Amino acid sequence: MTDKITDWTKGAEAIVYQSCGHCENVQYFHRSFCAACGAPDPVEKRASGAATVYATSLVCRAATPETRTHVPYNIVLVDAAEGFRMMAHGTDDLAIGDKVTASYRPFAGRLVPYFEKTK
Fold first, then answer.
1. Which of 3, 10, 11, 24 is the most exposed place for a label (fewest CB within 10 A)?
2. Is the pTM value of this prediction over 0.90?
3. Which pLDDT tens digit goes with each residue over 13-71?
């Protein structure tokens, strides 16, 4: 397996996905194999941060005491330019179809991807 690229789950300002060298499938959740064809060792790549909003949901009730100070906050599903879908945080004004770009912000003690309309 190739060297790991650090991403936001480890505190870095990056979104990392995997690409299969055999069938070219892209996947967001890290695995030791391609979810489409089963080939071993998909390659990790850094995403550009460019995406399109697929869905949004305004959260008005805190799930934990740590998230209480952030309510309300917007959760978005975005389709990344690289071909995978992921869930993240975003500005309250986002709508389906908006072109967005990722930045990173603190949320409940962690650094998380945060999408805003592309300027």
1. 3
2. no
3. 999 999 999 999 999 989 999 999 999 999 999 999 999 999 999 999 988 888 888 89
Burial 68-104 (b: 16+ CB within 10 A, else e): eeeeebbebbbebebebebebbbeeebeeebebebeb
Cis preceding linkage at 72, omega within 30: yes
Domains of the chain (ranges, CATH numbers)? 50-117 (2.40.50)
Is residue 60 within 8 A of residue 111, CB to CB? The reply is: no
CA distance 75 to 63: 13
Confidence at 4, pLDDT banded by 50, 70, 90: confident
Cβ atoms 91, 74 nearer than 8 A: yes
| Share of the chain residues as helix, strand and coil, in percent rounded to the nearest 5 | 10, 45, 50
